[in-house]
Amino acid sequence: MIKSDLHTHTFFSDDGRQDMRVMIEKAISLGLLYYGTSEHFDYDYIAKNLKIQGREMRQIDANAYFARARQLQAEYKNKITYLAGCEFAYDDDTGIQDRYGEICEKFSPDYIINSVHTCLGKDCYFPDFFEGKSKEYAYNAYLYRILESLEAPYPFDIVAHIGYCSRNATYADPKLRYEEFADILDAILKKIVQKGKILEVNTSAKTAGSPFIPDTDILKRYFALGGRRVIFSSDAHDETRIADKRDLVSAALKQIGFTHITLPVRGQYIAEEL
């Protein structure tokens, strides 16, 4: 059984809905051995002066987050390995990339998730991103942004939620399929393997047409290309979804041929048997 979940969010993130202590206690009750908060650092919104449906995004207070996280790490050290991570929202602005690098230097996060949320000047989570765009055009724009993000100059461990653009896509068939985007997906997957990064299997799929993203067709291709580093993630924003669908993900990964997931823990990669 999977006993880890490192992609979650608390009140420190703009869209988090729960206190950090409540989340940690829930993780313990679920039998997790490793639990992490990967709070949003959405500096891509700053770079592009974006708003969330008309309102300003609340950016994280990094000092407060890491102070609280380190306090709780000490408090819970004999109950669970709690890790304080970051989710960096990639942007091509070099000033934003430098800011992410400064966060790494100042706070030494226990692990870093690299995400793509925005492309073509909008967040591709929201339906207005798809207005006037074909599925082929919109998804290709998103995927090429992921490929670009893999060259980010700051250190990161995990490549997050490939298929994020499909979560709320307005197309009749929103599913991201390998066969429809094989060339760019191959470029992404090969680069992940080459760089030794960890591919995330994210169970916050919403209406993506899959129980998790990326789906098994993409995971099979990653495995065929030599990819062995994967990680389970719920992307929970409150305690109700921590470790959600972990058994489903475990079974799917085993069927493909994976034997373990890979956990980034303060610079070390730890194998957790499926």
Task: Tell me what you see in this structure.
The protein has eight helices and eleven strands. It is of the alpha/beta class. The strands form three sheets. The chain has a seven-stranded parallel β-sheet. A two-stranded antiparallel ribbon has the order 5-6. Strands 10-11 form a two-stranded antiparallel ribbon.
Task: Give keywords.
single chain, 274 residues, alpha/beta, 7-stranded parallel beta sheet, two-stranded antiparallel sheet, 8 helices
The number of strands is 11
Radius of gyration over all CA atoms, rounded: 17 Å
* String of helices and strands: EHEHHEHEEEHEHEHEHEE
Helical content class? 25-40%
Structural category is alpha/beta
Number of helices: 8
The gross shape turns out to be globular
Main sheet: strand order:
1-2-3-4-7-8-9
Q: What is the CA-CA span between the terminal residues?
A: 6 Å
